[in-house]
Amino acid sequence: MRWREQWLYHWLRWRARHDVATPPIAELGTTAVGRILVLSNTAIGDTLMSLPALHSLRQAYPQAEICLLVNPPYQTLFSVLAPSLVNQVAAYDGRWRDFRRQVRQWQAWRPDLVAILHSNEPQATPLAYLSGARWRFKLPNTSRFRFLLSNREPVLDWDAFDHGIQQRLAVAQLAGGVPVAARMDLPLHPDSAAAVDALLQQYRLPSTATLIGFQPGASTTSRRWPISRHIAVAKALLQQRPEVWIAITGSPTERGLAEAIVAGVADARVFSTAGALSLQHLPTLVQRMKVLLTPDTGIMHLAVAVGTPVVALFAVSDWRRSGPYQDLAKHQVIQKWRTCQPCLSKRCPHPEPMCMDLIAEQEVLQALHQALQPSLERG
Fold first, then answer.
1. Which CATH superfamily is 7-174 part of?
2. What tens digit of pLDDT does each residue of 154-186 get?
3. Residue ranges of the domains in the chain?
C-alpha cells in the first residue's frame, strides 16, 4: 500500500503548485460557505467526541448544508442526530479501496469547506483537497500531506491539546466555528425502547431491579481489565446488593468475554447482551443503567453522551485526554500507570495487561457502591 501513498504524495505536490491564491479569510463564518463536509470516520468514541465541534460549526453556519462522514458500521447510530445539526450522515471506512469513489462523490457534492475532526491518513487530507473545497482544516497537522491544508502552519501535534474534544473544537474554530459548551449529548433512536424492552424481558428482569453494566472489552487488549476481576467484583456486588442485575455489554466479537463472565459468576442476575442489539439501540440500553463499569473504549463515551454515570478504568491511556469530559461530578475514574516502558499498547504481549491488573477489585467495588447511592446521599 505504501506505493499508493508515495505516488499520491508526489502527484499532489505537482498539482498543488498550480493552485490559485487562498480565498479571503473574511468569508469564514459567513454565508459564502454553503456546504461543509466533516470527517470523523474512525471509532465510536472518536465520533462522539466530535459532536461539540459539530455544534460549533452549526452555530457559525446556520444556513449551511453539513454532511458528517462516519465509519460505515456507525452510520445508523449517528443517523439520529437532529437535522438542525447535520443535514446528512454519509459513510467511508478510510481505506484505499473506496478512496476514488469517495473523491468522485465529494467532487460532485462540491463542499466549500472540509473540517477533518478525526480521520486516518494518508487518505483524509488528500480527500479533503481533491473534493475541491476552498478551505481544508485539520489538527494535528503533522501529516506529510499538510501542504494541502489551509492551516499548514504552525505545526501542532497531539501534545498541544489537553483532550480529544479540545482538539476537535480547535479545528472548528479554525474553520470559523464559534465557542460552544463542550457537550456530546446523543439522542436516542425512536424505535429503540421496544427493542430494549424485548431484550430485558428475555432475562426476566424485575421492574424493581437496579440495572448496571459491565463492559469487559476494549479496542485493544492493553485496555482490558482482567476477566477474573470482573467476576470477583460481580459476585461481591450481587451478594451485597440483591436488587442489582448486571448486563455484560459488548460487540458481537466480544461475546466470548461476556459469556466468560456470565459463566464465572453463575447467577441468573448476570446476563450477556454482547451483540444482542443493533448498535442504534445500544444507547437506550446504556441509558437505563444506573452505572457502567468500563475501560477506555467507545461505550464509555456512549454512556457519558446519554447521561449514564461511569466507573472508568485507565492505565495505558490518560483519562485527561480521552476520559469523561462533561458532568464530571457523576463519573468516577480509576487511573493507574503504565508498567512497561516503552508501552507497546496495540501490540501488548500480555493476555491480561499488568498495568490494568494494578486496578484492585476493592477500589472498583467501592466506586460502584458509591455510584449506586442516591444522589442526595452522594452529595
1. Glycogen Phosphorylase B; (3.40.50.2000)
2. 999 999 999 999 999 999 999 999 999 999 999
3. 7-174, 192-373
